[in-house]
Design brief:
Distance between the termini: 44 Å
Strand content: under 5%
Structural class: mainly alpha
Shape: flat
Helix content: 55-70%
Number of strands: 2
Order of helices and strands: HHHHEEHHHHHHHHHH
């Protein structure tokens, strides 16, 4: 969402300044805004590093492409090709080794190409993170010793998600690597996805009911006794346990969970397209400020106009692209983690969340 290695370097410098002044700032009383920045210094550091990485992939430095990893894979067809960015380009050697080829900049197909690239990258990242969430649910089930959750939730969820969107992601990678056109969906994978839905829905509630009835079978009737001691020794009646097991409630809960996962597999994957939308918005805003402010002002042979254009460009970059866009990208990333990722394994059943802290560990040891 914040793929520009020039903006990433600016964020990195700001994060390093906060880290360098960490001891001094800890002992001072900070304002609300500065306190928020200081509290998120490590988040800013990680965001800046990944912004630089994605910016190198997009090949954007304040929206300007550079030939960092060698020359372009395209060149003019002949000497009459005057505009090397819009027409007459032919591919004459291997693709650009890392990231987007600089020759796409300014071409007529730049926007369709980048839209396709970023949309597919969003799908790949989304499917990978949702699979990671399902894998974490497997370790949750192992920790709590619930083999039913592994057999009737983890396995069908993996099959359903990857039969549809996992196969789609595989086709994207195959097309990128080979250029081949494969069928969108295979009938066998569609059948597996259809089988996975009742697999999630029906077996678990009936097995739970069977296990409960077997556990308390034969305890509905006890030996008749006349002493009070017999009444005290007698455990809770099986009738009470049977009343506690509400099959309809268990079944409705399982049905809601299954429907939520099936519908969520589609809606969550579509939700990851916000990565594409915000990345496109950031790139276009950066391009507008560069071309319509800086380059436009630099076209005048007047020092005052150039300084004004440079000041407006710096202000727009600092306050809109670096501050507002950073906050926007952070909030959207937080939303994707909380909703699309954590709903695969996190239940929130009443255990208070305790963040990892070295200070808390030291206190416990003391």
């Amino acid at each position: 969402m914040f793929g520009d290695w020039g903006h990433g370097i600016c964020l990195l410098l700001g994060a390093l300044v906060l880290l360098a002044q960490e001891r001094r700032l800890k002992s001072e009383k900070l304002g609300s805004f500065m306190e928020m920045l200081f509290g998120g210094r490590y988040v800013l550091l990680l965001m800046s590093l990944f912004s630089i990485y994605c910016g190198l992939i997009y090949n954007e430095f304040f929206s300007v492409p550079f030939h960092i990893f060698g020359g372009s894979a395209y060149r003019c067809r002949d000497k009459t090709c005057s505009d090397a960015h819009s027409a007459g380009l032919v591919k004459y050697r291997d693709p650009y080794p890392f990231g987007v080829d600089p020759s796409w900049r300014g071409s007529r197909t730049e926007l369709p190409f980048l839209n396709s690239l970023k949309m597919k990258m969003s799908i790949l990242l989304g499917v990978a993170q949702m699979n990671l969430g399902i894998i974490l649910s497997y370790f949750d089930a192992r920790f709590f010793g619930s083999s039913l959750d592994i057999r009737y939730q983890f396995v069908p969820q993996v099959i359903f998600l990857n039969s549809l969107f996992g196969y789609l992601s595989l086709l994207i990678v195959i097309k990128w690597c080979t250029g081949s056109q494969a069928d969108l969906y295979h009938i066998l994978l569609l059948l597996l996805a259809l089988v996975a839905v009742p697999w999630m829905l029906f077996p678990k509630p009936f097995i739970l009911r069977k296990q409960h009835s077997e556990r308390f079978q034969g305890r509905a009737y006890g030996i008749l006794g006349t002493s009070e001691m017999d009444l005290e020794v007698e455990p809770d009646s099986a009738r009470q346990h049977h009343e506690e097991f509400n099959f309809s409630e268990i079944f409705v809960h399982q049905m809601i969970h299954s429907i939520e996962f099936v519908l969520g597999a589609v809606s969550n994957t579509a939700s990851y397209l916000r990565l594409w939308a915000l990345s496109l918005a950031h790139s276009e805003l950066s391009t507008v400020f560069y071309e319509k402010v800086l380059l436009l002002a630099w076209g005048y042979d007047n020092l005052v106009i150039r300084l004004i254009g440079l000041a407006v460009f710096a202000f727009a970059t600092a306050f809109i692209l670096l501050m507002m866009e950073t906050l926007s990208a952070f909030l959207h990333a937080l939303r994707l983690h909380w909703v699309e990722f954590q709903n695969k394994f996190y239940h929130g059943d009443g255990y208070k969340f305790k963040p990892f802290s070295f200070a808390a560990i030291n206190d416990d040891e003391d």
